[in-house]
Structure formats: structure tokens, C-alpha cells
Amino acid sequence: MLNIVLVEPEIPNNTGNIGRLCVGTGSRLHLIHPFGFVINDKNLKRSGLDYWVHLDVTEYHNSDEWIAQIQDTSRVFLMSSHAEKSYLEIEFQDGDWLVFGKESKGLSEEFLARFENHLKIPMSNLIRSFNIANSVAFVIGEAKRQIMLK
């Protein structure tokens, strides 16, 4: 099972879509406060549809609380448009942590400095980033493909 981590998510529709994706792929969702919305927001439930009740989700008050329960930090992968290495160069494993930052700013420099594995999604120079829900879908899709082939 993959672990999808959203650090300080701001847009409820994105979080709802990612929650639905996690249910569909058998992944766990980890949400690190503060949020830009209330977890029971009607937009979150609308985008997550009736799948939200099936979601394996854990909320953390802050990043330290989340980090404290990780057993192997070498399996934590932070997504950043500034990273040098592509997510397509990684051999993913069951149980990996795939971490995505807030929609407006991504992951802070301070947060990025806490882990070594920074990955990017290759993209055209015409855009700065992909929508977070699309980014999660790219990475989960590749990780699940690799895990299923093992």
C-alpha cells in the first residue's frame, strides 16, 4: 500500500479527488495541518463523492507529528518542480511515502531539507507545475505499475 501525503492542502476539490484516487488504488492518505478548508467542506465531499467513507486517512497536527511515525525515511519521496531527478527514475516499493506540497507554493525549503529524495514530474517549459491531483495520479500510476510487475 502506498502512502500519499499532502502537506498543508489548500483546495478541497483537489484533496477530495486525491482521496478518491487513494480509495481506487488502495493507497493511504495522510493530511498534514493546517488546511485551507474544513475537512467536512461540501466541496471536499462532492469531489470525493461517496468514496470518502472508504478512505484510509490520517490527519496530523504538523509535519513533526507525521515524521515521528515514519520508520524508514529513505522511502520518503518529496515531489518538487525544482528537483533534478524524475519520478520515472525511481524503483518504487510497497509502503513508500509520496509527499506533495500545498497548491500555491509546493513544499517549503525547510521541509525539503528534512529528506534526501526529491523528485520532479517532467513537463513542458510552458508551465510551472501540474495540478496537484494530476501530479498525484501520475506518480501513483507509475508506482502501482512497478509494484504490480514485481
Can you describe what's shown?
Strands 3-2-1-6-4-7-5 form a seven-stranded parallel β-sheet. It is built from five helices and seven strands. It is globular and about 40 Å long. The chain has 150 residues and is an alpha/beta fold. It starts with a strand and ends with a helix. The model has no long low-confidence stretch (mean pLDDT 92).
Low-confidence stretches: none
Series of secondary-structure elements, N-terminal to C-terminal: EHEHEHEEEHEH
Query: Rg to the nearest angstrom?
Result: 14 Å
- Helicity, in percent? 25-40%
Number of discrete helical segments: 5
Q: Which strand order does the major sheet show?
A: 3-2-1-6-4-7-5
Any idea what the shape is? Answer: globular
Throw out a few tags for this protein.
single chain; 150 residues; alpha/beta; seven-stranded parallel beta sheet; 5 helices; 7 strands
Brief description of this entry?
With 150 residues, this protein is α/β, with parallel strands linked by helices. The chain contains five helices and seven strands. Helix content is 33%, strand content 18%.
Layout of secondary structure:
Layout: E1 3-7, H1 12-25, E2 28-32, H2 42-48, E3 57-60, H3 63-68, E4 76-79, E5 85-86, E6 97-100, H4 109-112, E7 118-120, H5 132-149
Parallel strand pairs: 1-2, 1-6, 2-3, 4-6, 4-7, 5-7
